[in-house]
Amino acid sequence: MPKPIAVVLLSGGLDSATTVAIAAAEGYEAHAMSFDYGQLHSVELAAAARVARAAGVTRHLVLRIDLGRIGGSALTDPNIQVPKGRGADAMGSDIPVTYVPARNTIFLAYALGWAEVLGASDIFIGVNALDYSGYPDCRPEFIEAFEKMANLATRKGTQEGRPIRIHTPLVHLTKAQIIARGLSLGVDYGLTSTCYDPGPDGQACGLCDACSLRLKGFAENGLRDPVTYVAR
Amino acid sequence: MPKPIAVVLLSGGLDSATTVAIAAAEGYEAHAMSFDYGQLHSVELAAAARVARAAGVTRHLVLRIDLGRIGGSALTDPNIQVPKGRGADAMGSDIPVTYVPARNTIFLAYALGWAEVLGASDIFIGVNALDYSGYPDCRPEFIEAFEKMANLATRKGTQEGRPIRIHTPLVHLTKAQIIARGLSLGVDYGLTSTCYDPGPDGQACGLCDACSLRLKGFAENGLRDPVTYVAR
Fold first, then answer.
1. Contact B113 A102 (CB under 8 A)
2. Which of B146, B140, B184 minimizes the C-alpha distance to B165?
3. Which residues of B touch A63 (CB under 8 A)?
4. Distance from first CA to last CA of chain B, Å, rounded?
5. In angstroms, rounded to a whole number, what is the distance separating the alpha carbons of residues A40 and B204?
6. How confident is the prediction for chain B on average, in pLDDT?
7. Per-residue pLDDT band at B200 (split at 50, 70, 90)
8. Which of A225, A226, B70, B129 is 20 to 30 A removed from A115 (C-alpha atoms)?
9. Is it the case that residue A61 has pLDDT exceeding 70?
10. What angle separates helix B140-153 from helix A140-153, to the nearest 10 degrees?
11. Where are the beta strands (DSSP E) in chain B?
């Protein structure tokens, strides 16, 4: 029997690298999807390509989309500063300026379209509701609502057998648990890129929310993060 | 008091031209959003610009997105033929090849992002569940599910006052009723473009599903469609 196909959203960060490894370990043939959305930290797209290659995905589709023209986020607007030094414990209580309006809704909508063309019923996304930045579109209640909508939106959902399922294998894990899980599956985190505001050669800043969470996760495993940080 | 802002999805066709007129008549300040999504019938973008100008929208944002690379539709893939001569009565019983996987989900996701940046709670889309081609993402149950999801996806939905509302003023109207409504609001349907497979100068084919429905709607009002059709 051929493996079922899954569309996996792949940013090139630590979470999505773990997610694609989990999809493969669960017996799916992974098709990875990334977005060139005007993110200022576009080094993550090079990371996504490295991760996709290492994970042996069947295809890696990178779509160029125009989120920057909608604006409203520090990740797409050079005039909005990425916050630094908040520390992992201060996060989650408010929605920070790095939030990109409706980003996960847009990414999942594309994944849904591609899944439909591929005849796939399964979509994986590495959202996390525990060690996260407080984005509303990372919460399980959002994912559930998206899944319901997806099954009404599509030919697949309305006419054919198996319903569409949005898999969120990381949603209830801490960053430390995500890293431990990925390492047990052979993920090379040295290939990934997490920082919101990397240096010219892709070095992580070590101070933004994403870096803070990542460093805490490695520290809690008693490990050193394999990526390069800006020297201070 | 300033008018509330609404994001209106504008394809440049008959339905969306009517929808933007309705949004204005209901007291909204309309911001129109269109997509250059690799549609083979891209003359509709010129129509969208004409309609936006005539409707006096505050801004008309055209986003270039990569739906063509996902494929799977006669509207984006030149190798899939647009069906002709099915007649308006044969439609609605199956999902035709002109269906673009997850298109309305993707369009609404972008509208949601823009609404969030604009501080708007209202999104208008001219879907129609009566005289339509049988697309799953035109049905009221899809729109309701999207609205629920939208209110969980966003800063607006989760933190601030008025919930997000997806307005579908045409959903229960026949094509003839839509045209009558639009004419009463002063819509110039000569500016619009509906055809899935227009000629080189933008003339409508008169035979695709979209043309069939449109012609029937004008005929039922005892009117002649003001756009130009390919001579036969």
1. yes
2. B146
3. 65-66, 69-70
4. 54
5. 42
6. 88
7. confident
8. B129
9. yes
10. 160
11. 5-9, 29-36, 59-64, 122-124, 165-167
HSE-CB for A155 with a 13 A CA cutoff: 25
A interface mutation test: which of B106, B121, B139 has the most A CBs within 10 A?
B106
User: What CA–CA distance (Å, rounded) separates B178 from B171?
Assistant: 10
Residues B150-160 have a mean pLDDT of 73
Q: Minimum mean pLDDT among B49-58, B69-78, B106-115, B119-128: which range?
A: B69-78
| Number of neighbours of residue B1 by Cβ within 10 angstroms | 3
Does the structure show a pLDDT above 90 at B106? yes
Q: Which of B102, B114, B154 sits opposite A116 (nearest CB)?
A: B102
For B70, the closest of A99, A114, A142 (CB atoms) is: A114
pLDDT of B98 reads: 73
Mean pLDDT calculated for residue range B35-47:
85
Chain B nearest-CA distance from A100, in A, is 8
Distance between CA atoms of residues A176 and A196, nearest Å = 19
Measure CB to CB from residue B69 to each of A63, A149, A152 and give the nearest one: A63
Give the per-residue pLDDT at A29: 97
Picking from A147, A155, A166 by the largest number of B CB atoms within 10 A of its own CB, the best residue to mutate is: A155
pLDDT value of position B1: 79
Residues 6 or more apart whose Cβ sits within 8 Å of residue B128? B15, B138, B170, B171, B173, B175, B178
Residue by residue, DSSP assigns B28-55 as: -EEEEEEEE---S-THHHHHHHHHHHHH
Ordered by where they begin, the domains of chain A are: 5-220 (3.40.50.620)
Quote the pLDDT of residue B132.
62
CA-based nearest residue in chain B for residue A72: B117
Q: Closest-CA residue in chain A for B140?
A: A152
Q: Which two tokens stand for residue A210?
A: 């994403």
| Of the partner residues A105, A158, A159, the one whose CB lies closest to the CB of residue B112 | A105
Average pLDDT of span B47-66: 94
Chain A: closest CA distance from residue B35 (Å): 10
Chain A environment of B153 (Cβ under 8 Å): 102, 104-105, 136-137, 142, 145-146
Q: Which of B100, B145, B153 sits opposite A102 (nearest CB)?
A: B153
Cα distance between residue B217 and residue B224, in whole Å: 10
Compute chain B's Rg from CA coordinates.
Answer: 17
